[in-house]
Amino acid sequence: MWWGGIVFLALFWDGMIAGHAAVQQPEADIDLRTYQSLYLAADADESERRMGRILQKEFESLYGIRLRLRTLPSQPLDGVIILGRSASIASGLITVSEFDAAKWDGFIIKATPRHIVIAGYGAQGTIYGVYAFLKKIGLRFYP
Questions:
Q1: What is the CA radius of gyration of the chain?
Q2: Beta partners for 117?
Q3: pLDDT digit string (tens) for 75-91?
């Protein structure tokens, strides 16, 4: 159900997950239905673009909202998902030192009331991060 994702994202509000680290408790819920766009860096690699298409498809199946895939502007708008290492660093929402803590195949999922960022240290970490995010918002990968 769509509301399961909203409740889940309450766990991320103004918090962060790096791999399987603990999550800070939220102060308020984040309504996923307000998210309209998915931003990638202009230099996003093929795995990030593929994960963007998967996230777009599965988000639509869960919420009925088709995220618009866009190239990251100089300043991201509110209510967007930012995907990939380059885009997250360019947005200023994740630092290089946070990626260093995540290690080679680790990932970071960070949410604020205005943005959700999903990025891995490397390509494999971004893939893991997208699937972890989808699982947490209610998608199941079995019949």
A1: 14
A2: 82, 110
A3: 667 889 999 999 999 88
Tell me the CATH number for domain 2-136.
3.30.379.10
Least confident of 16-20, 36-40, 95-99, 101-105: 16-20
Backbone angles phi, psi at 103, to 5 degrees: 70, -175
Token pair belonging to 87: 């885009």
Q: Which amino acid is at 78?
A: D
Question: In angstroms, rounded to a whole number, what is the distance separating the alpha carbons of residues 63 and 78?
Answer: 18
Q: What is the pLDDT of residues 40-84, one digit of tens each?
A: 999 999 999 999 999 999 999 988 989 999 988 766 678 899 999
Contacts with 30 (C-beta within 8 Å, 6 or more apart), sequence order: 6, 9, 10, 12, 13, 111, 113, 116
pTM of the model: 0.77
